[in-house]
Amino acid sequence: MAVKLTWASAFSAFLAVPVLSNLSILKDFLIWVKQDLGPWGPLVLAIAYIPLTVLAVPASILTLGGGYLFGLPVGFIADSVGATIGATAAFIVGRTIGRSYVISKLKNYPKFQAVAIAIQRSGFKIVLLLRLVPLLPFNMLNYLLSVTPVPIGEYMLASWFGMMPITFALVYLGTTLKDLSDITHGWNEISTTHWVYVALGFGVSVAKASLEKALAENVEVEGLLSPSMLPILADSPSDVHKPLIVRIES
């Protein structure tokens, strides 16, 4: 029996591949970077963010590793650039071959409706605030934003600035570790992110208030839409900056 392979199903399977998700593999990768790559280490570390981010695999271990291996400022620069190019790669995948898959998942994120509407008015500001405030799952945010009208240039710049605080905090934490094993033992993704947000609590609170205010400004517009409709990009490249109302079946 023939099986029809669509872009959506292929992309879904692609995301399911657990590349670099095993902690021991990440540890071995960091050891390799430290022992064998010399001055090329920071560049390779930055590039490693691409497959991790495209596969929606948490990358905080790489960020901690950058701090441990290279310290400040080199580790921060490598991690900051890597996080940005990784987020951009995922954004491009979501805007092209993964678009159907992303659209099929929109119904799972009810908070995204207000975000998508607000981005039409203030793309850079909303993306920046979303990077500062964990309103939506961080690893899916790149894909969710890919189907909004935000230009890729604004997305990249806002993401770079918005991810700087948490990147710096994780890199700094990495500089305090005594051994690479500390990165993969007792520093799981949830606990690490939790304590970083506690440390950045005041800044996150301010950003959260700003984001809520920005989303509230679009309440009247949002009220014109049914809950099952979202403004996303049209398929045609000529309409790339024009919002299209698409019904998402519940």
TrEMBL record:
Transmembrane segments: 6-25, 37-62, 68-93, 114-135, 155-173
Coiled-coil annotated spans: none
Transmembrane listed as a keyword: yes
Keywords attached to this entry: Cell membrane, Membrane, Transmembrane, Transmembrane helix
Domain VTT: 57-175
InterPro entries with a match to the protein in the record: TMEM64, VTT_dom
Domain of life, source organism: Eukaryota
Subcellular location(s) of the protein: Cell membrane
An annotated GO cellular component: plasma membrane
Main location group: membrane
Keyword NAD tagged: no
Pfam families assigned to the protein according to its UniProt record, in alphabetical order: VTT_dom (PF09335)
Membrane topology of the entry: Multi-pass membrane protein
Signal peptide: none
Matches recorded under PANTHER family: GOLGI APPARATUS MEMBRANE PROTEIN TVP38-RELATED, OS07G0655900 PROTEIN
Record's protein name: VTT domain-containing protein
Organism: Rhamnella rubrinervis
